[in-house]
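Hey, sorry to bother you again with one of my protein questions. There's a protein on my desk that I can't quite get my head around. No rush at all, and the record is pasted right below.
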Amino acid sequence: MGARVFISYSHKDEDLRDQLEVQLSMLKRQGLIEVWHDRRLLAGDHLDWTISKELDKADVILLLVSPDFLASDYCYKIEKGRALERHREGTARLVSVILRPCEWQRTDLGQYLVTPTDGVPITRWPDLDEAFLNVSQSIRRTIEELGVGAEAKENHDFIEVAEPAAEVVLPRSSNMRLRKEFTKADEDGFLLDAFEFMDRFFQGSLQELGSRNGGIQVRHRRIDGNCFTATIYQNGDKAASCTVRLNGGFGNGITYADGDDAGSGAYNESISVEKDDQKLFLRPMGMPFMAHGDGDKALSHEGAAEYFWALLINPLQGA
């Protein structure tokens, strides 16, 4: 039997939990882990008692940390509290997975190692698949350290509720993931959110670039609802500039054009919305960095903004 993995999370992060489970598929296939979370509850299960029982049976407890996780009394006080207790006892291993930016460092979780690397939140990684792979690899190392098929651990009644007189546990699959359907409205909204994020990202990046480097002046201009420009001056001379447009090319996408006066039909790169059976993501054509395989990347909003920013700043870095 593989190591039992309990996932504690806020239901507002269910989509991210689903994506994590996809990355854990190889660990499941190899028989290294069995995953449980509250969506495995069966009709008639006693909620608190069943969760308490699964927490006490787990070899590894994953806390999917986000603002909503910290705001949930049940996640933060009960599930996190029991996870820390078992970790300190040495009867289970606690792994904190930082999903979204939050003040986890100011909790007692700050004393322990977290994942992904350096505690960078999942949603801040350019490529979500790479972020979840990083987490999966950390969990694999944890499982290898524990060893598979460890002796059963003593149960502890952390939540004081009456145990049912009898429990019927039927065998069931952990494969409950269904294909998600995305509408054109979903895709358009995702693209618009990406453009607005990119606009703010460029504003913040330009400001920081100017404050860190002498002789650098910057300018950001929001032309209209679908276009902004960015310009970098070095010692008074224009060193780099670009125009970013929503739906600026052929089809539904965001385009990047060299120069802050580029016409609406001109672009050097384009990013469009794509989807798989679980999520929407952004994919570049990959023209400027074709040799690096960037056209194969599935990018988040952050990743797409970072990709376009690299096009702008590369000339100043001698790339």
User: Anything to note?
Assistant: The chain has eight helices and eleven strands. Residues 184-317 form one domain. Helices lie at 14-23, 25-29, 47-57, 67-71, 73-89, 128-146, 184-212, 301-313.
